[in-house]
Write a structure and sequence with these properties.
Blueprint lengths: L3 E2 L3 E5 L5 H8 L15 H14 L2 E6 L5 E9 L8 E8 L8 H15 L5 E6 L4 H9 L3 E11 L5 E10 H6 L1
Parallel strand pairs: 5-6
Antiparallel strand pairs: 1-2, 2-3, 3-4, 4-5, 6-8, 7-8
Length: about 180
């Protein structure tokens, strides 16, 4: 996974010493609007961290000045797009850093990388209908609302929710 930088952030591979930062992010139920189960102890975070390292599809979002990990960005294949070279993205940010533009900054950098260096055709993202913060990040990054899929996703506890889909095409990215 390539290291990406922004003025305030470094997006890099997860490392073993990030377990404490991951636990700080993932123990907070407010952060887990993406459907993940809150981590009840550091051992869960260590197990998840090991999966992150092994999969190599998720960046740790770290503050450039301190190295503290404040979030995560995952990019994975979007296999629902037929002929397109398509990816999907999801992300999480520590509540302590909400409202400062960090995730918008990170996602804009990932978008640039995916379209300009990985040459993808389309990038999609999903969120729950009540996750207005995620919708705002996507809109600020140039994504457009595509569709709401009724009963489109299942949370860790089995509860089913609608899935709001946004996407951005390569042609739209280069037009902006």
């Amino acid at each position: 996974m390539r290291i990406l930088e922004t003025p305030r952030l470094v997006l890099r591979q997860w490392q073993e010493h990030d377990a404490g930062d991951l636990f700080d992010i993932m123990k907070n139920p407010s952060v887990l609007m993406g459907g993940w189960e809150p981590h009840s102890n550091i051992n869960i975070s260590i197990d998840v961290l090991n999966e992150y390292v092994a999969s190599n599809e998720r960046w740790a979002v770290a503050l450039k000045d301190s190295g503290k990990v404040i979030g995560s960005v995952r990019v994975y294949p979007d296999n629902n797009r037929g002929k397109f070279n398509a990816k999907s993205i999801n992300y999480v940010l520590s509540e302590d850093y909400w409202g400062n533009g960090y995730m918008t900054e990170a996602i804009k950098r990932v978008i640039k990388y995916l379209f300009e260096e990985e040459n993808i055709d389309l990038l999609s993202a999903f969120h729950y209908p009540d996750n207005i913060r995620s919708a705002r990040v996507l809109e600020k990054c140039g994504f457009e609302y595509e569709i709401t899929i009724e009963q489109g996703c299942t949370r860790y506890d089995g509860q089913v929710f609608d899935a709001v889909c946004y996407s951005i095409l390569k042609t739209d990215y280069y037009r902006k």
